[in-house]
Design a protein that fits this description.
The complex is a heterodimer of chains A (111) and B (117). Chain A is built from no helices and 11 strands. Chain A has 111 residues and is mainly beta. Chain B is mainly beta. Classes of the chains: A mainly beta (111), B mainly beta (117).
Chain lengths: 111, 117
Amino acid sequence: QKEVEQNSGPLSVPEGAIASLNCTYSDRVSQSFFWYRQYSGKSPELIMSIYSNGDKEDGRFTAQLNKASQYVSLLIRDSQPSDSATYLCAVNKGPGNQFYFGTGTSLTVIP
Amino acid sequence: GAVVSQHPSRVICKSGTSVKIECRSLDFQATTMFWYRQFPKKSLMLMATSNEGSKATYEQGVEKDKFLINHASLTLSTLTVTSAHPEDSSFYICSARRTPPFGNIQYFGAGTRLSVL
């Protein structure tokens, strides 16, 4: 069983819509959860970090964490073509431990 | 966010030469840095974990004599691809871990695209 699982997509949404990206993780002791955005040919860029159950909002982005169900999601409101990228979910079990990355979900926002 | 600098951004070299890639955390100290490799349209593959002042921990299947890692200071880790061959051509990305109280977050360098002729 993989540590982190994501639907590879591709996910297509029209401009202005809400894009919903999901991620599940296997180890209940996981403590820290991250969403990275990676444009083609570029390195990952941190979008959100979340550590406790519930929602965390930052601009058009909302991360949602549900530790009981072991999933973390990312919502992108008012999607823009510039949001088209691969979104990586990452999980960490605490300082000193490895980060585990999902394989990424490819998002295309259609103008 | 924190800044991680990776240099060079692009390298083209002849087969058999060695290539050194530097990864620097510019505004924080990083006891742990990571080296990844990524092929086109594929996911990140962790190669090794670089620990300041100690030997790197390599993932299964990664040749430690081929990919030499040195983490001599809290802000610098280097990856040397020794005797590079065309199959080593890839996108290499480093990252540095920033630890509490600033969260437990991994920040990435911009990556190095290596082409071995």
